[in-house]
Amino acid sequence: MPSALPDGEPVPADGALPASALAGAADRPLGFYLHVPYCATRCGYCDFNTYTATELRGTGGVLASRDNYADTLVDEVRLARKVLGDDPREVRTVFVGGGTPTLLAAGDLVRMLGAIRDEFGLAPDAEISTEANPESVDPAYLATLREGGFNRISFGMQSARQHVLKILDRTHTPGRPEACVAEARAAGFDHVNLDLIYGTPGESDDDWRASLDAALGAGPDHVSAYALIVEEGTQLARRIRRGEVPMTDDDVHADRYLIAEETLAAAGYDWYEVSNWATSEAGRCLHNELYWRGADWWGAGPGAHSHVGGVRWWNVKHPGAYAGALAAGKSPGAGREILTDEDRRVERVLLELRLREGVPLSLLREAGLAAARRALSEGLLEEGPYEAGSAVLTLRGRLLADAVVRDLVD
């Protein structure tokens, strides 16, 4: 099951933020993340805050139903309007994730977006995204989303090989994600992403190359490729512990990453974050860049996390408890933390180092600057950007990104 929420101080019943969090808010971009916690089945590797119908049965009653979920989430959007007050900001990005957002009716997703438009307004060039399971959409569904204002969509492909999908407990059939890209283009979507996972037990280099080739053949303008992380408490972790499937190691992950970089770069995709490639700057995921650059976003939905002006908070996890709080006119927040200046500095280093533009050396302390010099001498940072005042990872540095960033913040 999903991991526990972090500790934190209580969230006020009305969700009010400290005045310091709203100071200067008009000058900061604002995004919304809308969490849809429902899945038809649970993938074996997943520890996200998601629920199948069986897992919800008898635990939340009508409050946990996906049939009225859109109404509940709209209530939180209206709460956000009250909490953020007369802030004139238009929303720059909206991202609907899950779970499987497309288990809801397309009209529900459009209605949730409409609430943000009504309460806040959308920037003229706002990026409006949703995740989608390939088996839960069809041309009519995609057309409704596009007509309702969505302009970016991300399909969970994971792999083109059936035996790899089986290990992951993915329910879609090979070839369906590629067909979805064509259907999304026909519906008028400006930007389409395919999500891939490498390092699944039993996956070979040839399997991974086949997945990359299939993804590129579909013609998305964005590809995300993530190393499989085996989380404790998942079905996959239990299978590995019982010896039913092998565990891949870091060397395998590194080899697969190099294959991805070589293949994607040859096809005209440039990396802009360690696990993300796009064919143009316009194809980059602006919503994720809000996260990586520490901007403001409101996360609506069970277990969703938010950040505004140095205050981070998170909602109760269970859909029934979430809906119950909003029905009672209370914030669904479970806890929050107020970040210090040092917290925010460290987070900037942790996140911005993963970006193509890198992190300003001016953010590093003396020990971090010494570590940056060592990383440069070891070929982990690019020389040109370093001389210009930024730490930017080389390809080798990307393979060791976690180790490099630990040194920079220590």
Automatic annotation (TrEMBL):
InterPro entries in alphabetical order: Coproporphyrinogen-III_oxidase (IPR034505), Elp3/MiaA/NifB-like_rSAM (IPR006638), HemW-like (IPR004559), rSAM (IPR007197), rSAM_horseshoe (IPR023404), rSAM_sf (IPR058240)
Pfam families named in the record: Radical_SAM
Entry keyword set: 4Fe-4S, Chaperone, Cytoplasm, Heme, Iron, Iron-sulfur, Metal-binding, S-adenosyl-L-methionine
SUPFAM superfamilies per the UniProt record, alphabetical: Radical SAM enzymes (SSF102114)
Iron is among the record's keywords: yes
Function description: Probably acts as a heme chaperone, transferring heme to an unknown acceptor. Binds one molecule of heme per monomer, possibly covalently. Binds 1 [4Fe-4S] cluster. The cluster is coordinated with 3 cysteines and an exchangeable S-adenosyl-L-methionine.
PANTHER family reported for this sequence: COPROPORPHYRINIGEN III OXIDASE, RADICAL S-ADENOSYL METHIONINE DOMAIN-CONTAINING PROTEIN 1, MITOCHONDRIAL
Protein family according to the UniProt entry: Belongs to the anaerobic coproporphyrinogen-III oxidase family. HemW subfamily.
Name of the protein: Heme chaperone HemW
Origin species: Streptomyces tendae
